[in-house]
Amino acid sequence: MLKINTEYNLFQGRKLLIATKHHKEKVIAPILEAELGVECFVLPDFETDVFGTFTREVERRESPFSTLRQKCYKAFEESDADLVVASEGSFGPHPVLFYVPVDEELVLLIDKKNNLEIGAKEISTTTNFMSAEIHLEEELIEFANKAKFPSHGLIVRNSQDYSDHFEKGITSWEKLFEVFRHFKQNYGTVYLETDMRAMYNPTRMQIIEQVTQKLVLKIKSLCPECQTPGFGITETIQGLPCQICQYPTRSILSYIYSCQKCGFSKEEKYPNGKTTEDPGLCDCCNP
């Protein structure tokens, strides 16, 4: 089992910029300040919509991780900070359970002073991500209740595929009915979707909080050779043998941990606590 250092203070007393415009600092800052001893702050006019918006008026051009790095370096450019954290979320169908929506949250810390990048990822099925074309007020009410409205915001659009008319950040029943009736009268169709911006989505905020906790654990995981933070999993090796035929299955056999500073790596076998796999998950015994 990988040893976690709980006293390493590379970041103690330093200022850390959280690169956000959607109030993510509300869940990120308390964790990082308590666990790392940093002093968190935000830029009041920091603009992240240039990298993409959930309402699709600006499409995200890069991968989520590339977008995350761009956010961090934009924050460096607009401040005198040398320590930045940002997060990026993506929503869509589960890779295996196709009809189940998932929230994939990434968080990245970049330390220019020590030339470090440490990231973490959380994939969760705990999300209210949903959308539908709405025709009747009864359907509107049903959708809104499922979406946890009004504690969670909603977006009204005039089309699913392309919308030159939309209203986001709706958080009251009065406003929702007003916008619905306006769109119904003026555009004929009403398309409703959840507002996935963090400040309008407490459920997403919870996942951002979870991935920040993961980031802290990774930061406190030090390289056994050089003591650099962020000694984490860089490769997953499949091939856990079948309990009956010993044929390699697709289950995880080991993790490879690597240091980005000195290049040291180590293998942790049987990370899930078992040395063989159930025959039901074997392609040979259960083709």
| Proportion in helices | 10-25%
Count of domain modules? 3
What is the second-level CATH architecture of the largest domain?
A: Alpha-Beta Complex
**CATH fold topology of the largest domain:** Maf protein
How would you write the strand order of the largest sheet? Answer: 2-1-3-4-5
Largest sheet: 5 strands, mixed
Q: Helical segment tally?
A: 5
Based on CA atoms alone, the radius of gyration comes out at 22 Å
Query: Could you give the distance between the termini?
Result: 33 Å
H and E string? EHEHEEEEHEEHEHEEE
Given as residue ranges, the uncertain stretches (5+ residues, pLDDT < 50) are: none
Structural class: alpha+beta
In round numbers, the mean pLDDT is 91
The CATH class label of the largest domain is Alpha Beta
3D shape: flat
Determine the strand fraction and express it as a percent band. Answer: 25-35%
Extended strand count: 12
Your description of this structure?
The chain has 287 residues and is an alpha+beta fold. It folds into three domains: 15-127 and 199-221, Alpha-Beta Complex (Maf protein); 131-195; 234-281, no CATH class. Helices cover 24% and strands 26% of the residues. It contains five helices and twelve strands. The chain has helices at residues 25-36, 64-77, 137-146, 173-187, 202-219, and strands at residues 15-18, 39-41, 83-93, 101-111, 116-124, 131-134, 154-157, 166-170, 190-194, 232-238, 252-258, 265-269. It has a five-stranded mixed sheet, sandwiched between helices. It has a four-stranded antiparallel sheet with strand order 6-9-7-8, covered by helices on one side. A three-stranded antiparallel sheet has the order 10-11-12, with no helix packed on it. A hairpin with a 4-residue loop joins strand 4 (101-111) and strand 5 (116-124). The relative contact order is 0.13.
